[in-house]
Amino acid sequence: MKARHYIKNSKELGENLKTARTKSGITQYTASKLTNLNRSSLSYYENGINIPNIFTMIKLMNIYKVNINDLIFTKE
User: Fold this and answer.
1) Left, alpha or beta for 2 (phi > 0: left; psi -120 to 50: alpha)?
2) Which of 5, 36, 64, 72 has the smallest count of CB within 10 Å of its CB?
């Protein structure tokens, strides 16, 4: 079994958020409407500029149909 590693920074979290969104086939525009956020806020999360709070993370996980492990572990 391959060892999994936790993300180390907001950039890695952002990459995982973007991967989850694109795999779910949802655009930033649609995700922003479903979460009541600005599209620019989602872009900041995906680019590692800002980190979403836990409530936003839960909304995104529900929309993208992923669990927390998909977001906090690296894709190694």
Assistant:
1) beta
2) 36
Q: Identify whether 5 is part of a domain.
A: no
Task: Please give the residue that has the higher pLDDT: either 3 or 34.
Answer: 34
Which domain does 66 fall in, by range?
A: 10-72
**Contact, 23 vs 63, CB < 8 A?**
no
Flag whether pLDDT at 1 surpasses 60. no
Query: According to the model, what pLDDT value does residue 76 have?
Result: 63
Q: How many angstroms separate the CA atoms of 17 and 56, rounded?
A: 12
Q: Looking at residue 26, which CATH number applies to its domain?
A: 1.10.260.40
Inter-helix orientation angle 54-64/28-35, to 10°: 120
